[in-house]
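User: Design a sequence. Structure:
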């Protein structure tokens, strides 16, 4: 049996070839148009998702600010602790700062206080034991509020665990050491420092040196010693302004 050559198998002058060629061209054009439409649809979907994320985030931020407004003693606390937390995270693990949800978590850390009765949240004076039991629920409530929002997934553990202590005596889960997420260990120091250097109805704010001494004393018990070391170095290198509101190091 003689093997046919390509030319013999498909004659160049086959009358059907021009039609096949034209069909292939049309098919290629249709594929290109489908690809273009799919790209446009994907781009539009991305824009819709981005707007939805912005809407969710704006809602969460507004809610956090409403909570803060109920307690005038914490005015500016959200912005300051977010700034401290980001500045500290940048020095400890720059990759954390590249994850937007971590910064959102710093800002939304107290979102769970929306579930705390106002007479406790705005009490002018120290809380009693029963009131503290209620107040300590806010990290879990906050995590539950944020958890359903997929783009804030990485913020959930930070919000839940920012009151854990390095020695395992914190709340809500009594995690210890590196069981506590790094971003929560970082934020714990930033949050405590701002609390110490802010006025409260029952006490005046601490000056810089005593506040840093207290942070240092808490290394190994309340705070991660390595985080404390970096924080103290950061503040001593670029102290907060006179009103203790902002770190120049963040600018």
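Assistant: Done.
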């Amino acid at each position: 049996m003689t093997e046919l050559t390509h030319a013999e198998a498909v004659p160049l002058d086959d009358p059907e070839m021009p039609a096949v060629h034209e069909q292939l061209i049309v098919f290629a054009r249709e594929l290109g148009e489908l690809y273009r439409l799919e790209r446009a649809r994907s781009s539009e979907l991305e824009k819709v998702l981005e707007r939805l994320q912005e809407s969710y985030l704006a809602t969460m931020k507004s809610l956090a600010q409403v909570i803060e407004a109920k307690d005038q003693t914490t005015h500016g606390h959200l912005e300051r602790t977010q700034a401290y937390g980001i500045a500290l995270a940048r020095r400890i693990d720059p990759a954390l700062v590249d994850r937007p949800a971590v910064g959102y978590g710093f800002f939304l850390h107290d979102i769970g206080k929306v579930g705390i009765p106002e007479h406790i949240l705005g009490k002018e004076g120290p809380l009693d034991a029963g009131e503290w039991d209620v107040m300590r629920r806010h990290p879990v409530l906050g995590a539950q509020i944020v958890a359903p929002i997929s783009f804030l997934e990485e913020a959930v553990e930070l919000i839940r665990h920012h009151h854990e202590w390095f020695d395992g005596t914190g709340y809500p889960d009594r995690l210890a050491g590196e069981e506590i997420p790094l971003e929560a260990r970082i934020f714990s120091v930033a949050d405590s420092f701002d609390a110490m250097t802010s006025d409260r109805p029952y006490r005046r704010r601490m000056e810089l040196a005593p506040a840093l001494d207290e942070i240092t004393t808490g290394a190994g018990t309340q705070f991660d010693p390595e985080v404390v070391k970096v924080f103290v170095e950061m503040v001593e290198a670029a102290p907060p302004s006179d009103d203790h509101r902002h770190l120049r190091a963040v600018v």
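Residues 52-250 form a domain with the Hypothetical protein af1432 fold (CATH 1.10.3210.10). Residues 17-69 form the longest helix (53 residues).
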